[in-house]
Structure formats: C-alpha cells, structure tokens
Design a protein that fits this description.
The structure is a single chain. The protein is α+β, with helices and mostly antiparallel strands. The chain has helices at 5-14, 25-46, 92-95, 101-111, 140-144, and strands at residues 17-19, 54-57, 60-65, 68-72, 81-85, 116-126, 134-137, 155-160, 171-173, 206-208, 215-219, 224-226, 235-244. Strand 2 (54-57) and strand 3 form a beta hairpin. The longest helix has 22 residues, at 25-46.
Length: 264
C-alpha cells in the first residue's frame, strides 16, 4: 500500500496523488448507506429544541450537535448539510477507516514518518444542484490556529464515494503550490482563512476528476477549491487527515482564530 517511487516523485512535485479503484463497489455501498444514516440522524437531533447552538461564520450557518460541527449549505434557508466535522465517531463503519492500510500506509509516506494518527475528519456533501462551491484555500491556516508547529505535517486522504466530475464539483488544485509555503490570504474576506484569488495563477489550475472508490492524498499547503454541483448526481466524500503519531486530535486543541493573522 506504500507509495511507489513514481507516486513519491509526483507527491513531491505536484502535491497530490490520486489512486483509482482503492475501495470496491460493495464497500462503497456500505459507506454511502452509513453517510445517509448518519446525516439523517444528525439532522433529526439538530432540529430538537434542546439541540446545540447555531451560529454564523462569514455569513454561513454552523451548528454544534451530536459532538460534531454541522455546516449547513450556504444558500439561505437550505435544509441540506454540506459538511460534518468530525464524523468517524458517529458510525462504526467510519471508525475502522483510521486503521485501514489503504489510507494509513500512503499517509505515512506522505508525511514521512513511521506511524500516523488521526488529526481530524470531514464528511463532505455536494447534493445535486445544491452543493455550493468553496473558494481557493489551503487547509494549513485552519490547522495553524490549532497547532502552529504541526500544521505542515498533516496529509488528507479524500475517499470519493461517488464519481467526481466538473459538473458535480470535482476538486480543482494548483499543482506545486504546496512548495511555496503559506499562500497570501484574502484580507477582504471576513474570517481571514481563504487565499487571495488575485494572487493565484488560475490558468495553472488542474481539475481532478475521480471515479467512485478513488482516494486523493494531498498536504495541508496545497491550494485547492471546488466548484458547485450543477448536476443531478451526488458528490459525497470522506476526508481523513493524518498527522505524526503521538499528537492530540484537533478537537482536543484550543482554537485560536486570531493566530491566522500571523500568516502572510
């Protein structure tokens, strides 16, 4: 399951490796069922009168419930979930992924350590004709405000449960951008976490179409974005982020958002 020499070279050069056919159709059926079961349960709990508080961040609705953060879809009044973080504690079918060699061993090579452990995880949804875009960003600033020393040593494994295409919101990356370090932030944006689009050469953007069952590995410093889902098809993905073993998970670290202003 380790990176081949070609994959190592690609990861160093481009900042991402896509492996096709990693998960079998029967496994994907089980994980899709787990996703829909989990989302239904989380939404039902979030709608209870005694559920966790809802709040706005940069104009978008978030809510604490079921020991996760729900990001509701960005369209005003949308009842759809766009993201849950973390999510693997919500169903045993997800929890086993942290020990899956198909994710763990490539992550060890990507981070360059003998053992990795969980950092955070996200259940990402782009519902048909509802899933919104996400602008240019690096994961690095979001994690820097939790762990300034360890943010650069985190790799994400993105497991596609559905085919990802240009029409349903496939990921778009800027190859090699991870080698330039933290990107200049968009200082006109409320949170200060997004990258400045005026300082990105979007002509170098690469679409990353992926078949269902594929896994994309990428580091925290890779610039990426996704377009909206304008199709009639689902685009569901599970993102597990690994760090060197022995470090606390993101949820156990303090959140210091003001530290983002230490970055360019």
């Amino acid at each position: 399951m380790r990176f081949s020499e070609q994959e190592r070279a690609q990861y160093t050069r481009d900042g991402f490796v896509l492996r096709a056919g990693v998960f079998a159709p029967a496994e994907l059926d089980g994980l899709r069922a787990a996703v829909e079961d989990t989302v239904a349960q989380v939404v039902a709990h979030a709608r209870r009168p005694d559920s966790g508080p809802e709040f706005l961040l940069a104009g978008h609705r978030l809510q604490f419930s079921s020991r996760t953060v729900i990001q509701w879809e960005w369209r005003d009044g949308s009842p759809e979930v766009r993201l849950l973080e973390p999510f693997t504690h919500l169903d045993a079918r997800f929890a086993t992924l942290w020990d899956d060699r198909r994710l763990v061993e490539p992550a060890q090579d990507a981070v360059g350590v003998a053992a990795v452990a969980p950092f955070t995880c996200k259940l990402n949804l782009k519902r048909p004709r509802e899933g919104s875009e996400f602008p240019w960003h690096q994961d690095y600033p979001y994690w820097y405000v939790r762990t300034s020393d360890g943010a650069h040593q985190i790799v994400t494994a993105m497991l596609f449960l559905d085919e990802a295409t240009a029409e349903n919101g496939a990921l778009r990356v800027l190859p090699g951008s991870h080698r330039a370090g933290p990107a200049p932030r968009d200082r006109t944006e409320e949170t200060g976490f997004l990258a400045d689009p005026t300082r990105i050469d979007a002509a170098q953007e690469a679409l990353v179409p992926a078949a269902a069952g594929s896994v994309l590995f990428f580091p925290s410093l890779l610039l990426h974005r996704s377009s909206p889902n304008t199709s009639a098809h689902q685009r569901r993905a599970l993102l597990l982020s690994f760090q060197p073993a022995g470090r606390p998970r993101q949820e156990d670290m303090p959140w210091n958002p003001e530290r983002v202003h230490e970055l360019p």
